Amino acid sequence: MNQKIRKCLFPAAGYGTRFLPATKATPKEMLPVLTKPLIQYGVEEALSAGIDTMAIVTGRGKRAIEDHFDRSYELEHQIDGTSKETLMDEIRTIIKTCTFSYTRQIEMKGLGHAILTGETLIGQEPFAVILADDLCDNEHDGVLAQMIELYEKHHCSIVAIEEVPNEDTHKYGVIAGEEIEAGLYRVSDMVEKPDPKDAPTNMAIIGRYILTPDIFEILKMTRPGKGGEIQITDALLEQAKQGNVLAYKFQGQRFDCGSVDGFVSATNYFYNKLTEK
Ligand code: UTP
């Protein structure tokens, strides 16, 4: 399967309950780190990896995401010719360069189910997935760009991983595997949110994936797993059994902006980066 990665899927239908009440009427993905919503950072990462087709799985109450990636004539008319115009430069470039398509997940049955809902937007080609609440930054190539470079060599599914403290394994999908080159593992096992005592390693999957399209057929057969949700980890394990999943220790920083602590760390990090310039 030598197809190029052209599309990035953003599952963004989750309730974001850890951020209530902020997420009662505002999508979690629209919470800003400094002045940019989380999902815009994700779209910029995809764009810098050479992807210009964004496919977003939304849900009820998430319409602000669609409005964000659209023109706002009244506002733009208001600020045209003022010093504030530059604040819109990045989003204007995104709107000009990318296409966006949306589909809704009607019942929130988990990340695997959200990805399957995106099948209609992706079709039969390999694709990237970004969970916008995992905010990544790197001095050089972004995490997705690093993964696409690997995909072009290996042509199989790839998950980004990070070593986490042992006591945190219950928050992540955790992998085990053989290291085939520095920082790259062929996955032999995956467990969703294991207790530290049951975790095969402390190598946790973060919110960046490259998936081959056979994942959709596997997801259709995947029964609800941990937490009663359809888990992408369970579907990936089926691919891993065929030796078709790699796990990559990415270069860069990751902030779990789905948690208050991670969100505050990201805000401090980007603020320091801005003020150090
Ligand atoms: P999370 O596990 O962070 O869940 O989902 P959540 O609902 O967003 O947040 P909390 O835990 O209630 O605070 C991981 C990613 O999967 C998406 C979320 O939008 C997020 O990007 N997701 C999850 C869906 O799109 N649909 C689902 O049914 C579940």
Account of the 3D structure:
With 277 residues, this protein is of the alpha/beta class. It has a single domain, classed as Alpha-Beta Complex (Spore Coat Polysaccharide Biosynthesis Protein SpsA, Chain A), CATH 3.90.550. 33% of the residues lie in helices and 26% in strands. It is built from ten helices and 13 strands. The chain is globular and about 60 Å long. The protein binds uridine 5'-triphosphate. The site of uridine 5'-triphosphate (UTP) has 20 residues, from helix 5.
Compact overview of the structure:
The protein is an alpha/beta fold.
The H/E string reads EEEHEHHHEHHEEHEEEEHHEEH
**What ions, cofactors and ligands are bound?**
uridine 5'-triphosphate
Low-confidence stretches: none
The portion of residues forming beta strands comes to 25-35%
Number of helices: 10
Question: Can you tell me the overall shape?
Answer: globular
Within CATH, the superfamily carries the name Spore Coat Polysaccharide Biosynthesis Protein SpsA, Chain A
Overall pLDDT level? 95
Q: Just give the CATH class.
A: Alpha Beta
The CA-CA distance between the termini, in Å, is 43 Å
- The value of Rg in angstroms is 18 Å
In the CATH hierarchy, the architecture is Alpha-Beta Complex
Total discrete domains = 1
How helix-rich are the residues, as a percent range?
25-40%
Number of DSSP E strands:
13
**CATH-defined fold name:** Spore Coat Polysaccharide Biosynthesis Protein SpsA, Chain A
Category from helices, strands and their pairing:
alpha/beta
- How would you write the strand order of the largest sheet? 8-11-9-10-12
